[in-house]
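Lab meeting notes turned into a lecture example. A postdoc, R.K., suggested we walk through two folding results consecutively so the class can see how the record format repeats. The first protein's sequence and structure tokens come next.
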Amino acid sequence: MSPAIEVDEQTYRAIEFAARMGNTTAGEVVARLVKTASVPSSAPAVTSKEDAEPGGKVDVYADYEGHRTRGSYDRDTKRIDITSGPLAGQSFKTPTGAARAVVAHYKPNVNPNRNGWSFWMLDDGSGGLLQSVRYST
């Protein structure tokens, strides 16, 4: 028998949702969260400029209201180009502008203000926030 942890119902639903969105298991979601939380805040950025696509681009995604939106963050211009979903083809001057557009699209009746640096995740399997590459160039 595997060790077990107890969580409240809302947390369990959030973990199950993250597992479905990531096409993984609830256990793997928890393991990734623990790994991410265990990295010291002074740790270097997850992705180096050399590992990024040509032109300094980094693939990102955001999960919001049951929808995954993918994009590409350009380190040089700080723009996010949306590459999937209903907003595909649109380009935003900042990660925050892109985050607001995603929120406004899926939930037009809520305040779309979001911090884009923590809204977008690195699409490299690390589970890291876009913020982790913000100052690494």
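The second example is placed directly after the first for contrast:
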Amino acid sequence: MKDDSGSLRAVLGVQADGTTGVNIVNGPPPPIPSMPVLAPSLGGITVSWDGTFTDGAVPPLDWQRTEIHASTTAGFTPSPATLQTTIETLQGGTVVVPTEEPVYVRLLARNTSGTASDPTGEAGPLGPSPVVATEILDGIVTASKLAQGAVTINALTESLADTAGQRYVDAMGDEGAWTVLASAPGASWQFLTGITDARTGSTVAQATGYTVVRGTTQIAYDPDVLYRISARVRTTAASSSGTDTVYVGVVGVAADGVTLVNRSGANSYLSQLYPAASNASQPAGGGWVTYTGFLKGLAGSGTVGTTPDPRTPGQAHSNVRFVSPLLYLNYGSGSSGDTGTMQVDAFTIEALKTGVVDGTNLVAGSVTTAALAADSVTATAIAANAVTAGKILAGAVTAEKIDALAVTSDKVAANAITAGKINAGAVTADKLEAVLQLATRLVAGNPAGARVELNSDGLRVYNTGGTQTIGFNAADGSGTFSGAVTGSTVTGGVVQTATSGQRITLNEAGQNKIIVYNSSGTAIGELSAQGVLVAGTNGAVLALDPNSTFPSLRMTNSARSNEAVVNVSGTNAILGMNSGTFPSGGQTWKWRNLYGGDASTDLWAAERVRNDNVSIYEGGRIFMTATYASIGYRNATTPSQDAYLRAEAGEVQIYGALKNNSRTVPVPAAWASLTPIGWTTTPSLTAYQSLRIRSDGTRAYLDGAASTTAAFTGSRDAFTIPEGMRPLKDHYYGLVRATSGDPRFIGCRIQATGTITVFATTSVATTDTWDFSTVSWPLD
């Protein structure tokens, strides 16, 4: 396909490598991305792009990615050597560029044709953040790197409490622990043993070509825990395109343990979380590379890109409840079938305990009363049974320190209150009032919130906000409910959804029926033992009456002067107008089963009853016998006007001509021949059926194969279509060559004039046979 200037833009069909598809080429350069934003980080810098383009340019449909290039040299030109990573979403993102010295950064966009935009201006130079104590990663400081006696107990901070509480490690020795989600043609996923230079054990998993794999183990995701995700990867064989890329992350899973949840909440393994590596460059010969990232918490949209800093971990989508390991290996090769090779030595997911303070972190006597903020120790912060009698000073608990009603009968152990524990004069008349109230009022739960009360007024249930939800009056036994009532049997009385307006009532005024009212309070429907009745707003009625002489479905208009009825009697079934004067002329029309008409099995579409009560049966009819059945129009007065379809064993007959768009279409007939023009209906390969044509009354069909009588390039009239089988407008089809050799297609145009024209861009030989059996066209 070419554009208006004649430039090739796409190749459609057979490609240069023998495959078939659509290949976009020579696309115009995309617009220049907006300037990147740089920030220092530990061991490198972060580069952020907001997903927009300069001068407010609209992203082109063939945009594929935005490349991040970095160099220590000012004024550098982006090249494969300066490519650090890519951002492959128009939402933008933030990536980490590892560096030990200040670098300059430029961005450029690239489309699906591989065409690059002009680069942005330079941002920078900027170098990594200085390393301070709070930024030292786990495992960086080892015993060999510390001077003897340099670290003492007094020198340790709360970081001592930051240790792995849960750890999932896969040394890639269990093939059943992984499953392949997607792969390119010819790609493979296998497990190797005896790998002596593997860093963890002696086993690795190896991906040849583009491969996406997921761990089968699902780990419960706690949003309050910091997770460290890491994997060790190396490239043992480069793809033909050179340096390939890798993704290291997790796939989110919903609460059902089955449904996947990606960053946007969709059920897909695509666009998942990649905190450790996101399209990271993985060159061959670089040895083992460990990728590490951090996750914590939930959000309405999951984090895009890598999050290597534990102080700013990524977040999963709010619907994530489980996570599993996820790897994209040889990602840059895509589905091209390229055969680069990557190996994975280990995959780790660790739940880190951060900020935990327990007895092992505290020196005896270090926590004193003066060190605690007022009211910092509350009842909810104290473990059950943590405070015992031996830990309470004598006289420490006084009446003013106990909340009203905090001590209830269920919180007092049996026989705990004895005469020896009651001070003389402690029980007074005013203090007995609470005991007297307990005799007439029982309170369960929060006295001001969710609770159940029983007193002389009846039973009351309150929600957490102190609002009554259920009430039963002691005087008359009536009840009120503010929520739904489910799973109960209601016996007797009247049930109604409202006292007026739109509502449903059961047994209103003892009528033993369900009555439905509209918003105006007008009854529009009812259900009872006598059937179902639905009334329209204008008075029209639809009623189902199972207890009439015959079971009937009745429909009346708003004036109820006419009635349509469907019923079944002992001798016939009726569908139609059963009373009134419809249509004009005093005649009544019905669908009716007639026993004893032309045959006992006749079903007439219409019975016309004249004013003199004489019935004339005419119109559509269904007729059945033991040997055949017919359906169509029957005129009892003028049989020559009959037109119907009759089916019997082995054949279908049509009586009367078929017409379509005011032109007569012949009744289906046997196969017929076409009139040759520049072709012969006899194919060069005699094993094929000679070309022929037929019609089923609504569509024409070609069958067999044919050959040209003379070689040609361009177009050539081939055959003439018989009258009655020509289309109302031109139709175009493709013909496949039946002759052995490379597959080829040529065009075929079925014209309303009756001419079949064949056209081709390359020469068509007389020795070629072309299959017409897939060609058919509508006659309307």
